[in-house]
Design goal:
Elements lengths: L8 H8 L3 H9 L6 H14 L5 H8 L4 E6 L5 H16 L3 E6 L4 H14 L4 E3 L8 H7 L4 E4 L8 E5 L1 H14 L5 E5 L5 H16 L8 E4 L5 H12 L9 E4 L2 H13 L9 E6 L2 H5 L5 E4 L2 H18 L7 E4 L2 E3 L14
Parallel strand pairs: 1-2, 1-3, 3-4, 4-5, 5-11, 6-7, 6-8, 8-9, 9-10
Antiparallel strand pairs: 10-12
Helix pairs in contact: 1-2, 1-3, 5-13, 8-9, 10-11
């Protein structure tokens, strides 16, 4: 009867005629083994189909060769673009990446953070649903660094984000420069820090233009989805024309795309009747039926930078100094706000 179960290091040592310690050195410190002996061990590994037991190795070392990215909502292309940057940086460092989708659920975030602590990942990147979750403080205390992505953080974590207050001001300021008197912002829940900051920036643009910040119409949504954008479009289309906002800033592109779809369905011309600005500048923004003006974030750069901060903390340990990297967003103007022949005032 043949051998049952996966081949072990002991099997490799027997096949190669070397000690267990020599096999271990070939796997972990090959420079310590002569070329001839290393060749015999590698031949034995290949012939037996041996695969090292990473789980056991993690237990001995206390840390795995993985990191995790806990995202707010993986259905949003913004986060998949950030994740692409995370993956590329992790690949360069020889690490695997877990992608954990919270779907906006605080309970799911809590469960993921507990599980990742048990898995002894190198570190956790997180766009928190609940920034006050005590587990975010506890993980570094247990030796697992945390980097907050797309949101500022306190003194116990590194963070990488884009200045959303500036982004909101860019969007609303653009609509004001185009002469819009009735401006609305669509987004929510407003408990999300990113949404709150974008609304705050929009209000600041009104104030700088000599307008009452409270003139901004806030249409809160339950999520940052296309479906919620469509519902907002229904609400706008149902308003009398004299009260309907003529310029709308959406807290992300998915909302803006849903709003655009529903507005066109109800016979509103974009941008003649309704100018729309999104946020994130995902790929679908430019490809929309009416190409979408949007506030662009450097999505892949956010992911790469987050991994760099995390790996620096892993390498330096107690000597690490937390950093908070803030990028500046840019307004990308397209047809959803500019009537042909009209230009933005200086």
């Amino acid at each position: 009867m043949g051998r049952v179960g996966a081949p072990s290091m002991k099997d490799v040592a027997a096949r190669a005629g070397v000690s267990l310690g020599t096999v271990s050195n070939v796997l972990n410190r090959p420079e310590r083994v002569s070329a001839a002996t290393r060749g015999r061990v590698e031949t034995a590994i290949a012939s037996l189909g041996f695969v090292r037991n990473e789980s056991a190795r993690h237990l001995r070392s206390g840390r795995s060769r993985t990191l995790a990215f806990v995202v707010l909502d993986a259905a949003n292309p913004f986060f998949t673009d950030v994740a692409a940057g995370v993956q590329r940086a992790a690949d360069t460092a020889g690490l695997a990446t877990y992608l954990c989708d919270c779907g906006g659920d605080t309970g799911r975030q809590a469960r993921y953070l507990e599980l990742l602590a048990e898995q002894r990942v190198q570190g956790v990147l997180v766009t928190p649903v609940d920034a006050a979750d005590p587990r975010l403080e506890q993980l570094p205390q247990r030796g697992t660094p945390v980097v907050v992505v797309d949101r500022g953080a306190g003194p116990t974590h590194c963070s990488v984000t884009v200045d959303d207050v500036v982004g909101g001001a860019l969007a609303a300021g653009h609509l004001l420069e185009l002469g819009h008197e009735r401006i609305a912002v669509v987004g929510g829940p407003t408990a999300l820090g990113q949404v709150a900051d974008r609304i705050s920036g929009a209000r600041s643009a009104l104030a700088r233009a000599g307008r009452d910040p409270d003139d901004l119409v806030v249409m809160e949504t339950t999520g940052l989805t296309v479906a919620e954008g469509r519902r907002a479009g229904e609400r706008l289309a149902g308003l009398p024309s004299r009260r309907r906002p003529t310029g709308v800033f959406c807290a992300n592109d998915l909302l803006a795309l849903g709003l655009l779809q529903r507005s066109v369905h109800w016979g509103l011309s974009v941008p003649d009747d309704l100018a729309i600005v999104g946020y994130d500048d995902i790929e679908f923004a430019e490809a929309a039926a009416v190409p979408l003006t949007s506030v662009a974030q450097p999505r892949e750069l956010l992911g790469r930078t987050a991994v760099e901060l995390l790996l620096d903390e892993v390498a330096t340990g107690s000597e690490h100094e937390h950093r908070h990297v803030v990028f500046t967003p840019e307004l990308v103007v397209r047809s959803s706000t500019l009537v042909p022949g009209r230009t933005v005032s200086a």
